[in-house]
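Example is below:
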Amino acid sequence: MRTVCGLEGGPMQSVTYRELNRKYREIEIGPYSYAPIEFFESLPFGTQIGSYCSIAAGVLFFRRNHPSGRVAQHPCFYNSALGVLASDSIPLDQENVLVVGDDVWIGANAIVTPRCRTLGTGCVVGAGSIVTKDVAPFAIVAGNPARQIGERFPIEVQKVLLESRWSKFPVEELLPFLPLFLENASVENAQRLRDHLSSKAQSR
């Protein structure tokens, strides 16, 4: 799959790479989302990543933990691939899927642990953070364990941006509204974007 990805312009552009991940690993990677190819190759089975996500080097997603409350926490006693068990004794990756919203930015070397199941649309995960619980849309989290240290926008702006659904449009259709993407978000410009895109969607 790496070869196909390279031939089609890398992880951000390759349509075939996305199709292969969907078919063979049930992994969804939204349009324009990018990360080092090593990150995509290490994704747990079933992971869902939205559109326009920015994921830096060294980021790791984990969906299973060693069962520390048991007599033994070694993989021999939970991972059937090692030949001791007929089937895994802890939930599989696809039974604890991580869902990453649209326009999520994850800084270098961040780790998302199995207790986190959602990274909300528009959120920011600081470099080196250890994320141990769900992250709300537009929240900024950092630290070990990661804690919310701010929000990108006031609630009113968040609401309108979510209503605009801008991340569901291809870049080409957003170009007429480029000035709105080049200034800080406000209720006013978010409303203009929402209204323009609503009209565009209705005319399709």
User: Anything to note?
Assistant: The longest helix spans residues 187-202. The chain has a mean pLDDT of 94. The chain has seven helices and twelve strands. The two ends are 34 Å apart (CA to CA).
